[in-house]
Amino acid sequence: MGKFWQALLTLTTFGLSCLSAAGANSQTWPLEQRHPFNAKIQQAQALDYHPLSKAQQAWRICALVPHLKDAYWIGIDYGLIQQAKHLGVSLDLFEAGSYYHQDKQLEQLSACMKGDYDAILLGAVSPNLLEQFSEPLTKPVLALVNKLNAEQVQTHIGVNWYQMGLSAGNFIKADAKAHTPTQPTTLALLAGPENLGGTDLVEQGIRHALEGSNVSISAIQHADNNRNLYRDQLQILLKAQRPDYILGSAVAIEAAVSTLKQKQLTQDIKLVSSYFSPAILRGLKRQKVVYSNDDLVVLQGKLAIDVTVKQLEGAAPFGDIGPAIVERTTSPNTLSDLSFSLAEADFYPLYQVRP
Q1: What is the model's pTM?
Q2: Closest CA to 341 of 281, 291, 289, 288
């Protein structure tokens, strides 16, 4: 090959690599910044977030989550794993096993605080978890998904769970007004663990949305996020009443789809999910579920790693940051572009990344 063609090939290759790098660096994630920090009612401002392309060093991050028993936290795990690999940082993830295992999560937090980690992502089993933690916080702690009440924590990656309840409640109010405007309408809630995670805030948002409407809450039942427990709750509920709507976690609504089919009540009771999952997606496509919030859990996981690394590399705390809530319905145009919503179908929970 002549010198001219060699030079041309070199310049072309260099140019393409520069364009590729520029493209990677120009990627943005559609997010929102919410104020005031950690408040129930917040104002949101749209944000085009520029993620990192590489960490400055192989930071070591500890992530603590309540459990990996459902698609929600598996989606968070998927996002954490993907971004840790992309940035070249270490990640160790530990699960408490349940929202009721506060003591176990406190032990895990202590181990991470004493261990060889640079920062901790804390998906707390309780918003007041750190009040029970007697040791000093000697490393940066960032709140992952769930609200965390502590002055030392100034970054929360996730969505506003009060807004999650408000969005689902507004859908039910509008749907009832469109289909049964003059009739009293009942809603039963199959909620998660009482006063843990985002359950309490979701319920408050639902109640606020339904004020002044023809929809009343006829029952509230709490359970750990377990399909069998929810099936039992559904049997008790349906013996006592026939609500017009049932709203619950994705796991609860998954159980409700099969229970209503068995009892031939699919056409009589509308199902609404407070968050998204593969089973809820199938339910929407098959007209078995009428609505679901989607808070883009994969994006939340990726964002959590990214902002942690940015803070370790000198950035100020990010306050309340996360994706805007997406409304999924039976309309096909609301069910596209799910790459930030669900883990890949063949993904199974992973607990460790090494660069």
Answers
A1: 0.90
A2: 281
